[in-house]
Each structure stands twice: as C-alpha cells, then as structure tokens.
C-alpha cells in the first residue's frame, strides 16, 4: 500500500513539474564573435550573446528583440564586482534560457507573437547599452562599450534575416526596459523603412524623485553611470539636443524616461507597476536613506508595510503617474499601469497571460500589447490605488535572497 501511494505521489509530482514547464522552452546561446573586432564587448572583453528561437509559419518575417535586465554599475569598483558574473561576461552565462510569456512559442500562452523570431539579448555592459569609452585601463581591463554591443547585435540579427522583417519590436525588462526606451528611435533607424517597428518597455520607467530621506539618490546614481560609461553621447538626441551646450550635468535628465518619452517618434508601449518593487526598494527607500532598516520588511512584502510607509508609497504612485503622463500624449503610445507590487511582468507566464493574470478593465497585458501592436485598438489604462486590484501578483521576497 505504501509503495502504491508513493508511486502515485511521484507520478503526481512529475506531472506537476511537467505542467509548470509546459509554458517554457529551452533556447541555446549564440555568441557574437565578430563583435570583438569592433570593440563591441561585455565588461570583461568577452563577446556579447543572445538566445534565438526562430520564427515559423506566418511569423517567419516578424522579429521580437527582448533585452535582459540587471541593473547598472555606476563606478569602477561596482563594475569590477560584476565583471566576472553573467552581468559582465558571456563566459559566465548559462548555455540555455527558458522562454515563456512574451517569448513563448505556444499560441495558447502568447497568441500574437508565438511564431515570431524571438530573441533574448543578454545584458553584460551595465549601462542599458548606452556606454562607449574607447580607452581600456589595463589595471581593470573594464570595457564600457554598451552602445557598440547594441549595434553589433542588431547588425548580427539583420544578417540572420531581420533585414527582411515585416514586423519588429524592441522590448525589454527593467534595465532592458530602459534600453528599449533610450534606443527605441535608434532601433527604428536601423531597420528597413518598410518594417513596422514598435517598442515595448516592461518595468523600465524609472522616475527621478526623492527618497524617504529627502535626497535624490537615484539622480546621483544615474549621473555616475553616465559618467563612468561615457553614455552622454549615446542618449537620445531628441532629448540632449534640447539642452544648452556645455550643460554636461544636465544630460543626466536624458537617462530618465520622463524627460525623453514625449520626443520618441516610434510607437512605444509601457507596462509598469505603479508600485514597482525595484523602485520602492531602490529609489523610494534605498538602504542609504534607511540606515536603521525600518523599511526592510515592508520592501520584502507590501502587506507588512505600516500605514506611514503605505502613505509614502501612495505618494510615490502619484509622482510616478505624473512622470508617466508624458506617455499619454499620443495614442501611438500605450500604457498598462497596474497597482501591483511587482517588477517585470511580460516575461513570466503568470503575469503575461494566464487565467489569473493581472488585468485592467478586464484586459490582460498580453491582449493589451497585442491589440496595440496590431492596431486593433489603442490601450492607455491606469489602475486605481493599492490594494484595489485583486488580480495583482504582488511580489514577496525571500529574506535569505534579499539584496538591496
């Protein structure tokens, strides 16, 4: 009897694991070896890389380029710390990634983009692909070449068929979402004039605001990123050209989406949580602004926030909505701003498209983005304040895995 029950339990476990993985497919890595001769390399000098799942059927000439996230390094010390990790070296990257959500090849899970050519670009430069410093200090051997990497990868994909694209999307999550904003018009300029090009930013709308101590920690941090990587010359010219010559410090504004979005000419869609968990942890209440750790448990789980902390988060939401209002100026721009405590919602099946996925006005993220891309209907919706939306998948962080 025991063996029979054990066998039934093991069969149930195996079936459950199969179901959990049914929406994900393993995709191997591709190294862009010829990029090295162009100086288009990761922080450690290794070649950039991506994972490529070919399109099929009616999607054979459609391309989705998804940029991986992973924060930024703002000085030599921090960049050295990530130089030999997957965020600084293709040598440390896994050979396979699982594709799900917007990268899924199953029509049920990704009805509008399942048969497109789907690419996940690995993130190894630490500047949202904006940096370009020619000199390499032999003492550190750090290469700040993100802008070159972006160009080299796009050229490599074009050589593999993207030059014939009928439809194309530049997308990304977190720092990759910021990449898709800052490089949206550049991506459009690199594609054939006949290609229908749009961009998608998932959790990439980082705002310039004060933290709980009253300081603008994020502005200082981004200033250091731009200075370290030599990013200024690669920020959107539609933004930098509006600033007075010589105002180098002011150029940092063009690293923030709120100062860039109104000038973006290419249609772009923004998926973002109004209580973005990364921004709450690192912009509103970073460790430097919370020396006694009073925000620690609140940042792990929004249900553990005090009434005072929730008030601060509600105020942050209002600032976020003000900052993203620039994106509602044209129906060519899409908005899906939910009231969840989340960060990145397009790559996970549970938040992209599932029976219990987050919804706004009864619409899932997948349907909103698909309708917008194919011009079936525009989509600009902003959720009511937390905790009004029962469809949210609010993040709960493990204290053992928690990093500031």
TrEMBL record:
Q: Name one GO biological process term.
A: cell wall organization
- The top EC class, named as a word, is hydrolase
From the UniProt record, which GO molecular function terms apply? pectin acetylesterase activity
Nucleus recorded as keyword: no
* Superkingdom of origin organism: Eukaryota
Where is this chain's protein located in or outside the cell?
Answer: Secreted, Cell wall
GO cellular component term, pick one: plant-type cell wall
Give a single Pfam family match: PAE
Q: What family does the Swiss-Prot or TrEMBL record give for this protein?
A: Belongs to the pectinacetylesterase family.
Q: List the PANTHER family hit by this protein, alphabetically.
A: NOTUM-RELATED, PECTIN ACETYLESTERASE 8
Specify the protein name: Pectin acetylesterase
